[in-house]
Model the fold of this input.
Amino acid sequence: MGDTLMSLLSHTNPGFIVILAGMLAYVIRGEIPRAVVTIGGPLLGLAALVLHSALSEPLATLNMMDMTFVLYQVERVSIVFGLAFLIAATVNSIFALHNKDPLQDSMALIYAGAAIAATFAGDLITVFVFWELTAVSSVFLILKSGTPEAYKASMRYLGIQILSGVLLLMGATFIMGEYGTLEFDAFISEGEGLSLQDDPGAIFLFVALGIKAAFPLLHNWLQDSYSKATHTGAVVLSAFTTKLAVYALWRFFPGEDSLIWIGAIMTVFPVFFAVIENDLRKVLAYSLNNQVGFMVCAIGIGTPLALNGAAAHAFAHIIYKGLLFMSMGAVMYRVGTTKATELGGLYRTMPFTAIFCIIGAASISAFPLFSGFVAKSLTMSAVGYEHMTIIWMMLLFASAGVLEHSGIKIPFFAFFAHDSGKRPKEAPFNMLLAMGIASFFCIWIGFPFLGGTEFLYGLLPYRDEAMVYLEQSLWTTDHVLTQMQLLVFAALAFIVLNRVKLYPPEKRGVVLDFDWVYRRPLYHALVWTGAVWSKAGPAMTGAALRLSRRVYNRIEATFSPQGELSRGPLSAGMAIWTSIVLAIVMVLALIVGPH
Amino acid sequence: MSEITPEEHTQDTRPAKHSGERYFGWTSHPKAGLYTFIFVGVLAVGLALADFFVHRHEYIHLAEFKIFYALFGFAAFGGVVLSGWPLRKLLGRPENYYEPEEETDNG
Done:
């Protein structure tokens, strides 16, 4: 019995277990049983991952319609992403324990499970199915806010996510045509992906992943939706969609040159929007863009060190970004807003949330002793080793920018700065516990001698290169010194600018971004078109109907049995001659045609 | 002149102490900003001086000169923050900028 269970677990995609837990969470109404399912599901998924029986070979397949669907295949890189997803799903379930909302609990787990299942899928159709499931399930986490703005944002979100899925399917169709199969093993291998040169399938796939990864100009769904999600929903959303895209880019496009520039631009542009954004959850969404940019850039570089960097960064980022969203979720839950203009001084009554937020902020800023330093250093070094000066400068600039928006702005304006006079209660125990667990990971991974860094580096796809980097480069005096110089002098700039009152004060309002194009001019163009059509449409259709009726009447008057052509000897003669000519053509075709 | 009741005598008229003040109360001290500036300033100077005693192995030629990272961090952060002034004028709009038109369409 025990052996059977072990065998079953070792061949089950952990995502399926989490999805099943999500389905159960909807029907189980008792609070304690539901808590057991929502936390136990991801933990059981973790057990399944630990027990996986083999690497790089199909562990579960399904044969259907003359095709083989690889439902479960474990690669080294999928372990990194899958493990981070499972930890995030567990922590998120703890964070949401106070919710008493079966639908949100259920959709959060189904969403997480779909992302995990896609991470361990071995063919494109299986990925497509779970890709779409992430879109459909996650939209409820925005909808459940219940505001008209959230409804509209959720519809925009769903539209663009489904579009990504459709493009993925189109890409899969082309790849099927070219390779005759959709199994990954047939067209990619670890570190070797598709080429965008003359391959429409790869191009469709690239755009589909670009939407989910929030490439520049395709990024606005992220700020639009995450800031309007529920206080627990934003935490869940922050972990999966973009990182699933990063995982897919890692698998399909390692070493794709265009990703270097796309990623570098992604790291830089959100910094400017984040500095003037008032809603701190939107600031975190811009910060997410910036962080994913580092990963995308590393994938584009494509060396073993860079690919390790992308995977390590994703692992650390899923946890510290979740922690930051949790701290803002706790503020949202207690105060009802995350607008900087309405916050400040919350440390008085929410000190533990403040401490956890600072740990998340230190991690994302890559302070030595925190997880971000351990993860981001790989990418920075990889860029340096390739002597890409401009890209390296862009990433260094973005690193200082991260300190501005996530390292300082988020904790400072929420918990310190001017006293808003608000004295909310500390976050509920379950929220503090979840933030405590995430904080533990941030420190454990980043602090030397605790074993966390070795654990993370040991998981990475190119383990030997990671271990050499750990021994020779990570904790060297010059590396720690230069990182500290960058961050401390950036912090000094903040203090100086604040003291001379040159730091722009937080101000209520929205910040225009590229979504302005489709929310304003395009929207107005569509409204105008609709208005014009409502007036001109009936007139135009009336005229078309009248014209077609006259044409039909004319044709009927000419060609019908009672028509002009049927009357008199001409008609009979024409019929006879037509038959004769047709007969001659047929006879000739028989004589001269191929035998 | 009203009499002071015994309750008022025993009542603490100072603002209530909150648990968080035990950890972060110092941040509300009037001189906290100055002390932080001095602390971070001294730390920064120390780190900058350390650059002259530590051999750095750089792969990017530009980063080889002394206190490059310190100057870059200060300038990048300062540049980003100062860009906020013109950017807010250019891109900032009232909070209900998007909503009125969209709401009329959806009833």
Strands of chain B lie at 92-93. Confidence is low (pLDDT under 50) at residues 1-13, 102-107 of chain B.
